[in-house]
Amino acid sequence: MNVKIISKLGGPALLAALAALPGAARAGVFVQCPGDTNGDARWTGSEVRPPNTVCKHLTGGDGFVTMADGRQMYTFGFDEVTGTLAKDVVLNLARANFVAPLIELNEGDKFYLTLSNVGMVARPDLFDTHSVHFHGFANQAPIFDGVPEGALTVNMGASVTYFYNLNEPGTYMYHCHVEATEHIEMGMQGQLFVKPKQDGTSKTYKGKTYNKFVYNDGDGSTGYTKAVALQLTAFDTATHEADFGIQPIPFNQIKTIYPMINGRGYPDTVNPNPLPPTQVDPYTAGTTFQSQKTTALVTLNRSTEGSRLLLRLSNLGVADYYTVTAHGLPMTVVGAGARQLRGPTGKDLYYDTASVTLGGGESVEVMIDASSVPAGTYFFYTTNLNFLSNNEQDYGGMMTEIVITGDAT
């Protein structure tokens, strides 16, 4: 991708200029979090946290990420700035991450999520609004749903706080719903999961005792010892170059060119560290900002982490279905669409499988019992062989490794 950056007054510089204007013309970041008095979405010092309350602060902006073949792509994305004073969010150059920061919550939490739109640094002529859509959340009030037709969206230099009363555990997703196909494809997507109230209790299932669960199963059947979140997605080069080059977006021609897991293609998926900062972006080149922080490498030390591994799988690719397998490992699906697979009479509808297929917006919880498999490296990958590539580079794409060590417990 050949990128030419044109210096303009935009992004943080533009917002700082707006903030200096008088009266109604002023732009600003505003965080709503009960008990928080300084606007950093945290409770420190004399600030009192209400019971079962969680606050987070995200920004929406733009940036660049690196594909596994070295190509650097322009993106939109979220960044978490929880703990940063509201007055410092824009000037601290909040940037875009791909995938978005993972959000982990508990059933019963009252969740306040502030989204601030910090503008497009690399494309300051864009003035897209943003939103957060909590994908799969049941019975959401329309005003907090993030869908532009019935909800608020966030203008550049402004903030909106969403409220969620979390009463259904499971694996969810979140994404921007403004021009949804474009903004999801451009990178505004992440995974969110809600842990059940049953967590912390002890239940024995098939001779093994667990204290962490996917759902309130009552019998320990969704118990696990370690969980890993893997989000399937993909980029299309034409869409990203069109967004950077001020061209019409060919939505009907979007293709899976760079298949990824957690925002990386193989072999970057197995790098346990954040990827280096991109060098094409003048606002991150030479800095420590890393836009791809989330590894897709799965490790399980059975001696210290137990032998029942939970994979929280989701798909926010906008172009294709993806079928994935954990080659050589037994897979049992215990939930789908943030619902336990259990019938109306209480019968478990879990099923053993060699693969699962996910369309855009779908999620499943897959349990892997590693107690009887040999220690070693197993591959988790798509069986769509054309998606095992990084554009024109073979032996990459939607694949990672599951490394099992230690003796079974």
3D architecture notes:
This protein is mainly beta and 409 residues long. It has one domain (11-405): Cupredoxins -  blue copper proteins (Immunoglobulin-like). It is built from five helices and 24 strands. It has helices spanning 11-19, 86-89, 180-185, 237-245, 302-305, and strands at 53-66, 72-80, 103-106, 110-117, 133-135, 159-165, 170-175, 189-195, 203-205, 208-210, 226-235, 258-261, 298-301, 308-315, 322-326, 331-336, 339-340, 351-353, 356-358, 363-369, 376-382, 389-390, 393-394, 399-405. Strands 11, 12, 14, 16, 17, 18 and 20 form a seven-stranded mixed beta sheet that branches. The longest helix is centred in the first third of the chain and has 9 residues, at 11-19. The chain is globular. The termini are far apart.
Element layout with pairings:
Blueprint: H1 11-19, E1 53-66, E2 72-80, H2 86-89, E3 103-106, E4 110-117, E5 133-135, E6 159-165, E7 170-175, H3 180-185, E8 189-195, E9 203-205, E10 208-210, E11 226-235, H4 237-245, E12 258-261, E13 298-301, H5 302-305, E14 308-315, E15 322-326, E16 331-336, E17 339-340, E18 351-353, E19 356-358, E20 363-369, E21 376-382, E22 389-390, E23 393-394, E24 399-405
Parallel strand pairs: 1-4, 3-8, 11-14, 13-24
Antiparallel strand pairs: 1-2, 4-6, 5-7, 7-8, 9-10, 11-12, 14-20, 15-19, 15-21, 16-17, 16-18, 16-20, 21-24, 22-23
* Element order: H for helix, E for strand: HEEHEEEEEHEEEEHEEHEEEEEEEEEEE
Distance between the termini: 49 Å
> Describe the biggest sheet?
7 strands, mixed
Radius of gyration: 21 Å
Task: Tally the helices.
Answer: 5
How many domain units? Answer: 1
Shape estimate = globular
Residues in β-strands, percent: 25-35%
**Which spans have pLDDT < 50 for at least 5 consecutive residues?**
1-12, 14-26
Question: Which CATH architecture is right?
Answer: Sandwich
| Global mean pLDDT | 90
